[in-house]
From TrEMBL:
Lineage of the species this protein comes from: Bacteria, Bacillati, Actinomycetota, Actinomycetes, Pseudonocardiales
Mannitol dehydrogenase N-terminal domain ranges (all copies): 30-279
Top EC class for this record: oxidoreductase
Residue ranges constituting the Mannitol dehydrogenase C-terminal domain according to the UniProt record: 288-476
Substrates-to-products reaction catalysed: D-mannitol 1-phosphate + NAD(+) = beta-D-fructose 6-phosphate + NADH + H(+)
Name the UniProt record assigns to this protein: Mannitol-1-phosphate 5-dehydrogenase
PANTHER family in the record: MANNITOL DEHYDROGENASE 2-RELATED, MANNITOL DEHYDROGENASE DSF1-RELATED
Organism whose genome encodes this protein: Pseudonocardia ammonioxydans
UniProt EC number: 1.1.1.17
Length: 489
């Protein structure tokens, strides 16, 4: 069995595994990426690797950065493997298509040496700082949509001689670039949010303004923040994935990445210091990302929420189990057709009916084995971003909201912390304590859950939505998830 760092992999290869055919020693890092997780390694790093394979982008290698204490494991694995990892596409028929990816040419762990991260960002060779720090990782006030100076860690970073958080590190690097005359760069969010570049702009300029008013002006006027729509289902790596790679291919990888075959990236062409020719490897580089964002967030991501809580309550544990259930599939398609699609703008070059068919097919892929627990993670942020904008637009237009209300009711029932068999359900949400308490009060105090204004705003005051929510919740209490879904399918 070969390990990734063994040089024999380059001269002899591993049967059935694609390996980089380029000389990694000649690849210089031009991108600093904060938040090296599964999605980054299945998406941006994969696209850069494809360019390198095509003989392009030799100045656009990636230096990964870990900011959180828990990133120490990623640091250790990537250092032991010289930045290499295996990306494994899981096909619907159960077959695996592995490729060793070589675009991560360096990795810095900020808790070890935050100044090294700042210097790398300030390096003239660095022209893009990219991010996957999750939807809830941005310091945004959920009520106003503006920078939240009270967000965890912001005050400490501003007071520190050397910051350690993502925003502080990047802004410190920008300050050095301004001071040294290096010039601006691009901050490229790859997180799953509508207007992710606009959100990043508000956060980084707001932080820079607090650090130094003149720096804030310089960032606002010079740094660019392209919006993008990113899409690839990337479940958490399981021990069984490592074992399958070893058993089928004789390859040991401490942290491979598994993903579905489908991938999409729609990227606004707004870069301050150049960019790789992403369009050469299938990226849609466009002037306006917004229609594609709405399509993905309100169809794919909101539908993930629609199947996650109700599917779990009905006894399923994997996404494909829910999508293969004809009743659930009909419910999901009904939500997409009747509630989400009317809120979308025209999407150039996209057949929406075909896109929705593809979504159901992707969800039903048993090879991916994506867990409902994973897609239910961070519910308060995901519901707020993916589902509630659809609800508000439909209410304003007089459109149907019954299925979306049932999804929120499913979340409320799920947030109680037990399933329909009385088994405990772990809650993984930054607001878990308060939302679980409200969900448990809901039976005796109707609409207690919906009156959590930081998440739901004034939706509890809307009689039509509140009524649909309560009807669905009463059905969940008395009949269970499967009959409730069947009524709306």
């Amino acid at each position: 069995m070969r390990s990734l760092e063994e040089t024999a992999i380059w001269s002899e290869g591993v049967e059935g595994v694609d390996v980089p055919g380029y000389d990694r020693a000649g690849v210089r890092p031009g991108i600093v990426h904060i938040g090296v997780g599964g999605f980054h390694r299945a998406h941006l790093a994969m696209y850069v690797d494809a360019l390198l394979t095509a003989g392009e982008a030799r100045d656009w290698g990636i230096c990964g950065v870990g900011v959180l204490p828990a990133d120490d494991r990623m640091r250790d694995v990537l250092r032991a493997q010289d930045g290499l990892y295996t990306l494994v596409r899981k096909e619907a028929d159960g077959s695996l298509s592995p490729r060793v990816v070589g675009s991560l040419v360096d990795y810095l762990y900020a808790p070890d040496d935050p100044q090294a991260v700042i210097e790398r960002i300030a390096d003239p060779a660095t022209r893009i700082v990219s991010l996957t720090i999750t939807e809830g990782g941005y310091a945004i006030d959920q009520k106003t949509g503006e920078f939240d100076a009270e967000f965890a860690g912001i005050a400490d970073d501003l007071a520190a001689d050397v910051p350690t958080g993502a925003f502080g590190l990047v802004v410190a690097g920008l300050a050095l670039r301004r001071e040294r005359g290096t010039g601006p760069l691009t901050i490229m969010s790859c997180d799953n949010m509508q207007g992710n570049g606009d959100v990043a702009r508000r956060v980084f300029t707001g932080y820079a303004q607090l650090r130094d008013a003149d720096l804030g002006v310089w960032v606002a006027q010079n740094v660019t923040f392209p919006n993008s729509m990113v899409d690839r289902i990337t479940p958490a790596t399981a021990d069984s994935d490592r074992e399958a790679l070893a058993e089928r291919f004789g390859l040991h990888d401490g942290w491979p990445v598994v993903c579905e075959p489908f991938t999409q990236w729609v990227l606004e062409d707004d870069f301050a210091a150049g960019r790789p020719e992403f369009e050469r490897v299938g990226v849609q580089v466009v002037d306006d990302v917004v229609p594609y964002e709405f399509m993905k967030l309100r169809l794919l991501n909101a539908t993930h929420q629609a199947l996650g809580y109700l599917g779990y309550l009905a006894g399923h544990r994997y996404v494909h189990e829910v999508a293969q259930d004809p009743t659930f599939a009909s419910f999901l398609r009904g939500y997409m057709n009747d509630e989400a699609t009317p809120t979308l703008r025209p999407v150039p070059g996209i057949d929406l009916d075909a896109y929705k068919d593809t979504l159901i097919e992707r969800f039903a892929n048993p090879g991916v084995a994506d867990t409902l627990m994973r897609i239910n993670f961070g519910s308060s942020d995901r519901i707020s971003i993916f589902l509630l904008p659809v609800v508000r637009e439909q209410l304003a237009a007089g459109g149907p909201v019954d299925r979306a209300a049932a999804v929120v009711a499913g979340w409320c029932r799920y947030a109680e912390g037990t399933d329909e068999q009385g088994q405990p359900v772990a809650q993984q949400d930054r607001l878990a304590d308060e939302l679980t308490a409200l969900a448990r009060r809901e039976r005796e105090e109707p609409l207690a859950f919906l009156r959590h204004r930081p998440v739901f705003g004034d939706l509890a005051d809307d009689e039509r939505f509140a009524g649909a929510f309560r009807r669905a919740l009463e059905s969940l209490y008395t009949r269970g998830a499967a009959p409730t879904v069947a009524d709306l399918a």
